[in-house]
UniProtKB/TrEMBL annotation:
It comes from SAR86 cluster bacterium SAR86A. Keywords: Membrane, Transmembrane, Transmembrane helix. The keyword Transmembrane applies. The chain crosses the membrane at residues 6-21, 28-49, 55-77, 103-125, 137-156, 168-186. Coiled coil: none annotated. This is Putative membrane protein. The lineage of its organism: Bacteria, Pseudomonadati, Pseudomonadota, Gammaproteobacteria, SAR86 cluster.
């Protein structure tokens, strides 16, 4: 089973748990089950496991999982905000938009953390630092700068969490796209 198939299966498991388990803690439970399923699928797929490649593929898969989870939660949040703007308040329980944006912001921060661990484990696997790895390091560093600027903007300059989450989400997709395009361009 390929790496992408493993990540996709864990994302589908996350979606299924999130869809069928309607509870206040469903996001936490769905993320935990999705992460656990990815780790178990990875460990069951490969018989021979060496430490560094295992760590590298696990944190890379978990970073993808968290980015897709954040994407799903942003879509969910935007639908709820649209319902609120249209005046459909009856179906909404105690829904706090600002609190939910903070949750998505934290999910993106965890995804960035795993992406950074993927970079560090990838660097430890290589003996020669190629242009591919240098560009990945630069993109990850830029993502951390964006994340830290957004955190400082929220804490000290009253930057709205809504725009902070959206801009960080776009920058995370840009970093992820740069990772894959960089690999494609360097390998070609």
């Amino acid at each position: 089973m390929s790496f992408i198939a493993q990540v996709t299966i864990s994302i589908v498991i996350y979606f299924l748990v999130r869809f069928f388990y309607k509870n206040e803690k469903s996001l936490n439970i769905a993320v935990a089950i999705g992460c656990l399923s990815y780790i178990l699928i990875y460990l069951l797929t490969y018989e021979f496991i060496s430490i560094l490649p295992t760590i590298h593929f696990m944190v890379t898969g978990l970073s993808l999982l968290f980015i897709f989870v954040a994407y799903n939660e942003i879509i969910f949040l935007e639908r709820k905000v649209k319902k609120i703007k249209e005046g459909e308040l009856l179906s909404l329980e105690s829904f706090s938009v600002e609190k939910y944006y903070k949750v998505v912001f934290k999910l993106l921060g965890i995804g960035l953390f795993f992406l950074s661990l993927a970079l560090l484990s990838g660097l430890s696997l290589q003996t020669v630092f190629s242009s591919n790895l240098i560009l990945k390091a630069i993109f990850t560093f830029l993502a951390w700068i964006i994340y830290l600027v957004v955190v400082v903007g929220i804490k000290y300059f009253n930057f709205p969490i809504k725009y902070a989450t959206r801009s960080l989400f776009i920058s995370m997709w840009a970093v992820l796209g740069a990772y894959y395009m960089n690999t494609y361009l360097v390998d070609s």
